[in-house]
């Protein structure tokens, strides 16, 4: 077993004083308050060990990382039916891009861009009686942590300025690809994105995808084939128009969020989360991507 502690400590040390750290998201006003110098890394190994450095226990806004968790619950409910409403192709476009949605008759390219995640949110609004509560319970269960919660200020902040997402939802509705009211679906979507978790909680939640659908408590939440498909979607679509670059540099299925978090995993081996709020031009954590590139290069532990 390699010395993960030394490796991540060295990476953290090398990158923490980088002068170029990227820019914190400001289109959600509450996120612009984040300190660009925060930086944490956490690894949950499947042999039970874990490794941590820096701000790995500081809660952050997981934003689009939540799209994988909502997707897994929608797949558990509806299995293959969801692919009638959302595709599985990389979009090659930014996460909030709209024109492709119109060209392609209201079928989003994949569930990890905003329009696709809004369709998934609609599925959960139909399946759950109390979507916000029951989704939170699901996330707490797979992460084995009852302390996880929504940050209501972030949810309200995104709602106030979420014009682009409302446009996506209205476009979906106009194409008949949204069954619930736009307001109901968007209220749920803004809350799911406003889940606040630490690097260690995110790594524990994503263990289910590295472990063939069984969570840290060994409970089966999705089938092994469903976990395999979710990993394929993360690999091809998890970083929007930087998904190719992430596969090229890091070589793991993963997902980013505009709160600056990134989670990535090597099936049957480990889950790694980084958090550094400064983003690059594509909306992915600048330091987080560099840290993960260095980690898989130094350990030679990627899927390729
Ligand atoms: N890339 C992201 O993390 C985007 C999520 C954000 N809540 C949005 O919908 O715009």
From TrEMBL:
Calcium as UniProt keyword? no
* Reactions accelerated catalytically: L-glutamine + H2O = L-glutamate + NH4(+)
Xref: Gene3D superfamilies: DD-peptidase/beta-lactamase superfamily
Annotated residues for binding of substrate? 64, 114, 158, 165, 189, 240, 258
Kindly indicate whether the keyword Cytoplasm belongs to this entry.
no
Give the matching InterPro entries: Beta-lactam/transpept-like, Glutaminase
Subunit structure as annotated in this protein's UniProt entry? Homotetramer.
- The name this protein carries in UniProt is Glutaminase
Organism equals: Olleya sediminilitoris
Q: Which gene encodes it?
A: glsA
């Amino acid at each position: 077993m390699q010395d993960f502690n030394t490796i991540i400590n060295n990476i953290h040390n090398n990158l923490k004083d980088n002068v170029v750290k990227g820019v914190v998201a400001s289109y959600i006003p509450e996120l612009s308050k984040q300190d660009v110098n925060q930086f944490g890394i956490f690894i949950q190994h499947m042999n039970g060990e874990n490794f941590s450095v820096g701000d790995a226990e500081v809660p952050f806004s997981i934003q689009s990382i939540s799209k994988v968790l909502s997707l897994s619950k929608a797949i558990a409910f509806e299995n293959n039916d969801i692919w009638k409403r959302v595709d599985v192709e990389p979009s090659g476009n930014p996460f909030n891009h709209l024109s492709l949605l119109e060209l392609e008759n209201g079928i989003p390219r994949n569930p990890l861009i905003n329009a696709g995640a809004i369709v998934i949110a609609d599925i959960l609004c139909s399946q759950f009686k109390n979507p916000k509560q029951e989704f939170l319970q699901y996330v707490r269960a797979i992460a084995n942590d009852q302390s996880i919660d929504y940050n209501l200020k972030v949810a309200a902040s995104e709602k106030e300025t979420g014009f682009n997402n409302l446009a996506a939802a209205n476009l979906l509705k106009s194409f008949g690809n949204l069954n619930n009211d736009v307001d109901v679906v968007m209220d749920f979507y803004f809350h799911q994105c406003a889940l606040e978790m630490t690097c260690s909680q995110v790594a524990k939640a994503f263990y289910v995808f590295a472990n063939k659908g069984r969570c840290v408590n060994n409970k089966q939440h999705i089938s092994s084939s469903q976990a395999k498909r979710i990993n394929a979607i993360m690999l091809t679509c998890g970083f929007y128009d930087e998904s190719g670059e992430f596969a090229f540099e890091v070589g793991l299925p993963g997902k980013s969020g505009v709160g600056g978090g990134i989670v990535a995993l090597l099936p049957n081996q480990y889950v790694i989360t980084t958090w550094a709020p400064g983003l690059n031009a594509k909306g992915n954590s600048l330091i987080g991507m560099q840290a993960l590139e260095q980690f898989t290069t130094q350990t030679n532990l990627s899927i390729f």
